[in-house]
Design brief:
mainly alpha, 15 helices, globular
């Protein structure tokens, strides 16, 4: 069974019969990496063996290991060597990032590229903020990558319906969810939650995918970084749909922990440039 689109009789809206079981799964290697939560020597070897079983992921990991992101003094020629240099947490993040890109590799339109860049920008902001706040940077990055997986799925696998969402636009982010429900039968937060559940991922990702646009529902701990990181990514120009933000850069920064606020650049353009340069390196691998 595949998602089917039909035209409503009352008005020209598009309805999606959403079935997460019919949506292609996240790449197997990345999905297994998501479920490897420990950073022990055993899990590093397990992750290394997972990567070596997939040529595409092996090549991608070697490219990252030899890129300016790592800046290692010697040429890295094997996945095992790359795993030692990168370590478990960084290697896992690389696999998940590559997995997101592979998820829609055959349909890399301008819309999908915007989804990709927004997710990576959110992940970068969340990871930095977590490290500066003594929170879990690995979880923050992974949550940032996955928070919009519902939008990625809608834009990839029901592209015509989501193109109508883009065309309609929205005045505010909350309005966007209403437009998605009207034209797709489901919004990207609900779609993301259903995918996380169908893929049997950690319950911590359920609330993040479902509630990252709800300002009044802020999860505790590391998960609390995702809503402001998502909003900040939009404000810096990494948005999928341009909505009018009622809040300034400084007002969004106020939602981050104090130690993270003090480390994030006061100049929005500087932060946007830093993230752009990092995304370019990731895209080049």
């Amino acid at each position: 069974m595949t998602p089917a689109l039909g035209t409503a009789k009352a008005k020209p809206s598009i309805e999606l019969r959403w079935d997460p079981e019919a949506i292609p799964p996240f790449p197997a290697v990345a999905l297994k990496a998501l479920k490897l939560l420990s950073g022990t020597d055993t899990s590093l070897l397990e992750l290394c063996n997972l990567i070596r079983s997939d040529p595409a992921f092996s090549i991608a990991v070697l490219r990252v290991a030899n890129s300016p992101l790592v800046a290692f003094s010697k040429n890295i020629t094997s996945v095992l060597q790359a795993s030692i240099v990168l370590g478990f947490l960084r290697l896992r993040r690389v696999v998940i990032t590559v997995g997101l890109r592979a998820y829609f590799e055959n349909s890399f339109s301008l819309l999908i590229r915007s989804c990709w860049r927004h997710s990576v920008a959110c992940a970068i902001i969340a990871e930095r903020s977590a490290k500066w706040s003594s929170l879990d940077g690995d979880f923050a990055y992974t949550a940032g990558i996955l928070h919009d997986i519902g939008r990625v799925a809608l834009a990839t696998f029901v592209a015509d319906a989501y193109a109508s969402v883009i065309k309609r636009g929205a005045e505010q982010p909350d309005d966007l969810l209403l437009v998605e429900r009207e034209l797709c039968g489901i919004d990207h937060c609900e779609a993301g939650r259903s995918l996380v559940a169908a893929w049997n991922l950690s319950p911590g990702f359920l609330e993040i995918t479902a509630c990252h646009h709800e300002r009044e529902v802020r999860p505790p701990g590391t998960a609390s970084l995702i809503p402001p990181s998502c909003e900040l990514a939009d404000a810096l120009g990494f948005s999928v749909i341009h909505c009018r933000s009622p809040r300034s850069y400084a007002e969004i920064l106020a939602d981050f922990p104090e130690r993270a606020r003090g480390r994030l650049p006061a100049d929005a353009k500087m932060l946007a440039l830093e993230i752009t340069n990092e995304i370019k390196v990731i895209e080049a691998v």
